[in-house]
Write a structure and sequence with these properties.
about 25% helix, four-stranded antiparallel beta sheet, alpha+beta, Uridine Diphospho-n-acetylenolpyruvylglucosamine Reductase, domain 3, FAD-binding protein, about 350 residues, Oxid_FAD_bind_N, catalytic activity, 2 domains, flavoprotein, FAD, five-stranded antiparallel beta sheet
Length: about 350
């Protein structure tokens, strides 16, 4: 498929200009705030630095529907990529959230956020085959994909996923994609939390084609996807009421009433082992990923929420814009590793300084 065959495609390569900008910044010690569409700017600490706008660097550079592989520049609108894949009956199975029409592919990889299907399909990093990135010296390097090359023992393509631009500037990413499911059906069942979790544990040991499971306020929400016969049989077996499939899109984009930005209570995301018992912090809980991801609206003390998550073997992130320290504090050994990695890949600290933690 060529660029002109793609719906609403725009092809523009400004890698050379971006490289020059980064090289100048490294030479002068100028810090850079790597900017895309800005729809996930709330996710992390604010960066006070000169802006490096990656959005003009866009276009699908290679797409082979038969091989299920696509390569796309970082500034490409995420919606444009999804339309291109949908035209061939394919999709990004990890359901990345947009949080706005300006979302880009680079922002998707940099934040590493996944939607409701994540426990059943995998995370963003599981589908990244390779990347092109600009190093602190202003050189565009290629990792993974057809080249399958690492530097200093690091798998750079995976390290860049979720690094929030603190290790380099992503210019292009190659990903595996998958066919859209042949059939899908969504259900809702009125169940208390304990019964809902017990049923999910039971269904997890059976051939039930679940690809999303959430619980809130006495209702279990399910999505079945796969072959038509399998979906139809499971729908009849599980019972419940039909659910508008738009529920999952609204969950993915935080458009459900639970995520109302007018709610004055901070919004927390807790990542936990799936079968973790209900935690102590008081507030309004929304269970996603079959219980492995839990959203909490609460005015409880931040340290208490994070301590409860840590005792359960997980971590807690504050999603409320403007949070001073949104991410869970790193253990000392892990923090040391992160500092060493930052020093190796960005010795002058020019890339998104302080985005994750004050000293990274």
């Amino acid at each position: 498929m060529t660029p002109t065959d793609r719906p609403e495609s725009v092809d523009r390569d400004i890698a050379a200009q971006l490289c020059d900008h980064v090289a100048d910044a490294d030479a002068t010690g100028t810090r850079l705030r790597i900017a895309g569409g800005g729809t996930k700017a709330f996710y992390g600490r604010p960066v006070a630095a000169a802006t490096l706008d990656v959005t003009p660097h866009r276009g699908v550079t290679h797409y082979d529907p038969v091989e299920l592989v696509v390569s796309v520049r970082a500034g490409t609108p995420l919606a444009e990529l999804e339309r291109t894949l949908a035209a061939e009956g394919q999709h990004l199975p990890f359901e990345p959230p947009h949080f706005g029409t300006a979302a880009t592919v680079g922002g998707m990889v940099a934040t590493g956020l996944s939607g409701p299907r994540r426990p059943w399909s995998g995370a963003v990093r599981d589908f990244v085959l390779g990347t092109r990135l600009i190093s602190h010296r202003g050189r565009e390097l290629r990792f993974g994909g057809e080249v399958m090359k690492n530097v200093a023992g690091y798998d750079l393509s995976r390290l860049m996923t979720g690094a929030q631009g603190t290790l380099g500037v992503i210019t292009e990413v190659s990903m595996k994609v998958l066919p859209l499911p042949a059939a899908a059906h969504s259900l809702r069942l009125a169940l208390p939390l304990q019964n809902a979790m017990a049923k999910l544990a039971k269904w997890g040991r059976q051939p039930v084609p679940l690809t999303a499971a959430a619980w809130h306020d006495g209702v279990l929400y399910l999505r079945l996807e796969g072959g038509r016969r399998s979906v139809a049989a499971s729908r009849a077996r599980l019972g419940g009421e039909d659910l508008d499939p738009a529920f999952w899109q609204n969950l993915r984009e935080h458009r459900l009433a639970f995520f109302d930005p007018a709610d004055p209570r901070p919004l927390w995301r807790l990542s936990l082992p799936q079968r973790t018992a209900p935690l102590e912090p008081e507030g309004d809980w929304f269970y996603d990923w079959g219980g492995a991801q839990r959203w909490l609206r609460s005015s409880a003390d931040a340290r208490g929420i994070r301590d409860a998550a840590a005792r359960a073997g997980g971590h807690a992130t504050c999603y409320t814009p403007g949070a001073a320290d949104p991410f869970h504090p790193l253990a000392s050994a892990l923090a040391k590793y992160h500092r060493q990695l930052k020093a190796q890949l960005d010795p002058r600290g020019i890339f998104n300084p302080g985005r994750l933690y004050p000293d990274l």
